[in-house]
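Exercise: predict the structure of this protein bound to adenosine-5'-diphosphate.
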Amino acid sequence: LDERLPIRGTNDELDQLGTTVNGFLDRIAAYLSQQRIFLADVSHELRSPLTALQATIEVSLLQERSVQDYQNTLDQISQECERLSRLVRQLLLIAESESGRAAVSFTKFQLAEIILPSVEMFYGLAESREIQIYCEPIPTCYLLGNSNQLRQVIHNLLDNAIRYSAEKTTISIVCTQFANEVQIQILDEGCGIPEHELRNVFDRFYRLESSRNRSAEGGTGLGLSICKAIVLAHQGQIEARNRLPSGTEFRFRLPLANHT
Ligand code: ADP
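Solution:
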């Protein structure tokens, strides 16, 4: 890939072909370099919980301990296992959204079918923290896509909205239908994201400094990159904005199915 075609100035067509091929080679090289970085990040992320598990088990075996100590150790092990399986689930989602296989199962479905399951699923968790989920009436419109994947987008955004919100706040879901597309907004009143970090949050393994320090939230930094990959695979767009006085808005747009 480091080789470049020698471009000679005698023939315009050859010049152009050489430039095009070299452009492709540059893009392939950039892609491979991204994949290498991703693989290194994945290895690192998988190794951390495994090292923690190993250390916890070794310490526990070496020491004579009470039943309560063993109970605590088992709790720690269970948390690390949960983190590992979440990570593996998310890596599989990334692989699926990148493989193009998801497009095979594109079907036509109503917008509400991807919104309501997540709202119902998170209702109890939100209520336990006195967070209200308010979903405005959903327009009756149809999308063409992989409904499981799009459900995952709403799931990840709502999951984040709850995790990064304080108690007694409100999360709103607003869907607006336009001529050819629908816009879905998930608005929270949580801690917000510093303006200069807004564009980075969709990068794989990116976590704000404040979130990295709060390991209890068990985040992986993959949730939003999965959302972006899925939305792009459906010819949509996604972005994050800050809200005043505090909070974050995630909004994405998806094309409507032709026959509504
Ligand atoms: P994570 O598993 O860490 O939540 P994500 O990819 O879902 O990974 O999010 C990346 C980072 O973006 C999070 O670590 C967090 O710092 C920030 N973030 C995501 N959603 C929100 C939100 N609703 N409010 C504030 N910060 C958020």
